[in-house]
């Protein structure tokens, strides 16, 4: 997942009371017209380094669009929350027509900026819904619970102790839903599995994530859910297995990372670019483009573990993946905070 340490409690939902009041989608496109043949000026504002899992997927998709000639792309990383509004305004003043980012800690300020620049499109990571009062502000989130569930099927087959450790950043919706989907997959294969769940209170603190993972291994975990960087390092050092999240790190941990739930931001960004160029961008929820059936997520190839995962489980993964894509099976979206069991 993403971002720098924010000053909030268990739920981000207390940050914007007003934003949650209106989930209506505006039907009015941005005024003006962008010539489709011209590269669109796009700027992104990140609160963490672009190497961080969640942000790296946005950055990857933006660079792909840039290489195709669809956009011009600039970005700022490690932007503090108290500096976010200023950077947004500077990019707007510089003539950028699509602003990307993640505003989980600065929702009020970001939406205020959007109101001040009605000719600019904003596509922002958010736990909240679009607001009809801000027709140029769309939201997205990484709804990759489909892939997380599939990774849980694999994990359930690979744990011998039936004790799995899970290390997350914060217990907020976009983390919780992935953990819950993973746990559901595990329980389908190994219903008696226990889970040790911990949150480190940071989006990017590999040493703290590593130490937390060490404690879970000491508590009997033989497989770790690596929602944060640092967890797979602990797994490697202690010779236990890990399941990755958002990106595929198996090349770095060939004997450790069994599988990963991958997020593909390309469908989300490409839709937004097309809408802006057509003059049709409106307040909308782009979360749907993270779903597996829309190409927004996938289970990474098993690679070095292909021969180690039981054939019956691989067959079940294939069957469930097909069912997810054709709509005959739906992975539950559960945003509740997961608990150790």
Automatic annotation (TrEMBL):
InterPro entries, per the entry: ABC-Purine-Binding (IPR052910), PnrA-like (IPR003760), TAT_signal (IPR006311)
Keyword Ribonucleoprotein recorded: no
Annotated signal peptide: 1-36
Entry-linked Gene3D superfamilies: 3.40.50.2300
Signal as UniProt keyword: yes
Domain ABC transporter substrate-binding protein PnrA-like: 54-282
Keyword list, A-Z: Signal
Protein name as catalogued: ABC transporter substrate-binding protein
């Amino acid at each position: 997942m993403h971002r720098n340490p924010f000053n909030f409690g268990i739920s981000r939902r207390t940050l914007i009371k007003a934003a949650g009041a209106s989930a209506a989608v505006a039907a009015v496109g941005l005024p003006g017209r962008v010539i489709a043949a011209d590269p669109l000026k796009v700027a992104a504002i990140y609160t963490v380094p672009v190497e961080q899992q969640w942000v790296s997927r946005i950055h990857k998709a933006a660079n792909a669009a840039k290489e195709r000639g669809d956009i011009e792309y600039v970005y700022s990383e490690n932007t503090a929350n108290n500096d976010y509004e200023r950077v947004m305004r500077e990019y707007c003043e510089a003539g950028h027509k699509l602003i990307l980012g993640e505003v989980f800690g600065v929702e009020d300020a970001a939406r205020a900026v959007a109101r001040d620049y009605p000719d600019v499109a904003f596509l922002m990571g958010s736990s909240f819904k679009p607001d009809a009062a801000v027709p140029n502000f769309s939201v997205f989130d990484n709804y990759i619970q489909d892939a997380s569930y599939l990774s849980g099927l694999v994990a359930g087959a690979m744990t011998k102790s039936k004790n799995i450790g899970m290390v997350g950043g914060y217990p907020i919706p976009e983390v919780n839903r992935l953990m819950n989907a993973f746990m559901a997959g595990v329980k389908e294969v190994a219903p008696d599995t226990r889970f040790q769940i911990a949150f480190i209170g940071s989006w990017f603190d590999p040493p703290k994530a590593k130490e937390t993972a060490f404690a879970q291994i000491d508590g009997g975990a033989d497989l770790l859910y690596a929602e944060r960087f640092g967890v797979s390092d602990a797994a490697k050092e202690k010779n236990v297995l890990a399941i990755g999240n958002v990106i595929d790190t198996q090349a770095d941990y060939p004997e450790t990372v069994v599988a990963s739930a991958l997020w593909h931001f390309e469908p989300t960004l490409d839709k937004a670019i097309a809408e802006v160029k057509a003059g049709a961008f409106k307040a909308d929820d782009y979360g749907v483009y993270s779903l597996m059936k829309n190409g927004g997520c996938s289970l990474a190839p098993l690679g070095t573990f292909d021969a180690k995962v039981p054939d019956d489980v691989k067959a079940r993964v294939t069957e469930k993946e097909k069912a997810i894509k054709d709509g005959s099976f739906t992975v539950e979206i559960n945003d509740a905070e997961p608990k150790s069991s």
